[in-house]
Recover the amino acids of this structure.
DNA sequence: TGACATGACTAACGAGATTAGTTACAATAA
DNA sequence: TTATTGTAACTAATCTCGTTAGTCATGTCA
């Protein structure tokens, strides 16, 4: 007993992410993750602050990953295509990592967890920059950013939770929704 | 013992909704609802099929309520204002009944629960009619309906889960998002 | 070499969901 | 009126999880 197995926080979050992406966030319980790592449930407390702590680490990891995904998408395209590239990357991330994606909600209240708050703000800032490069007026920026975020999040959330019943091509629906939102933004701001 | 208290399914769902709207869907556990009704947890099984059954009844109730809210909103305005009225009513419902609203997700897979499926389709149909009255082409109807649903759902979900950090007027953001989506729809379809 | 921090462990408890079996009451049929 | 039956409450017991407390082996470092 007491054998050190050499488990790192990365291992813990990785195992949790794997379970969550396969079976849903709820399935990534302390006991399931411990099982996956080959340790007993109470030993999880040597790595994370209980279930809430595990969820927090998953959210942090998800935010960092999403930031990188956004960053790659934004820089791999001409500025006028950045928003669309980010939108596609967002949806791809959510579909490939549904468990991690759902770990991003709810967001911490301001002042509750600054590190996580910053990490979750990062991808939003990248999207904001991409919008700015399209010529969105600074005055309207926050409103339009919110609208676009709502459309992106709402779409992938409905999609992964079975909200779209009709067997009509969903890729097309997404592309159209992003087009409507982006072109709508521009026509409003001139 | 064995006293009949005269609890109806309506009572059960009502008590669950009250708890869920106040403390979140998770808080509406079988034991918490039983407590609220003054009965023991196992007696809940005389009214609903376990926790999953309770959630299902809550979703059904929420869908019926939302349908009525949509119906009222759609008929209390000229056709060209119906979509906006529905959008506002949608957000109001989600903010007044956050627990019930979150009970609407996930949706049942087709064939899994026809009654619930139909009930949840009803408000979507009302929104579809309102869109049709704006002159959206039938060909595009499904894509555009999905886009609008995504924006509405994403907005209220982000709002209630603390996703909007900035202290900038959220009513305005919502109104702008709906405007963008609706006018975008129209310009795309000609 | 010995003290200490780390990270595993066992034991124990509480909350919640669930199942099985029991019982009181009300309505209805003989 | 009385016997029967269904409803809806109950207790008892079990399982899974999360959590805390306390223990112990191992590697590091003075």
């Amino acid at each position: 007993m007491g054998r050190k197995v050499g488990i790192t926080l990365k291992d813990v979050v990785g195992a949790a992410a794997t379970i969550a992406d396969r079976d849903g966030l709820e399935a990534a319980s302390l006991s399931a993750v411990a099982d996956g790592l080959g340790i007993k449930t109470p030993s999880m407390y040597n790595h994370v602050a209980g279930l809430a702590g595990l969820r927090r680490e998953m959210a942090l990891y998800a935010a960092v990953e999403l930031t990188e995904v956004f960053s790659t998408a934004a820089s791999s395209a001409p500025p006028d295509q950045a928003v669309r590239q980010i939108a596609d990357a967002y949806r791809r991330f959510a579909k490939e990592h549904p468990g991690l994606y759902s770990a991003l909600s709810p967001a911490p209240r301001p002042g509750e967890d600054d590190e996580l708050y910053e990490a979750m703000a990062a991808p939003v800032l990248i999207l904001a920059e991409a919008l700015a490069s399209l010529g969105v007026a600074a005055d309207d920026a926050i409103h339009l950013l919110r609208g676009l975020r709502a459309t992106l999040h709402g779409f992938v959330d409905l999609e992964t939770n079975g909200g779209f019943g009709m067997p009509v091509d969903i890729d097309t629906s997404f592309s159209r929704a992003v087009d409507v939102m982006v072109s709508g933004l521009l026509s409003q701001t001139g």
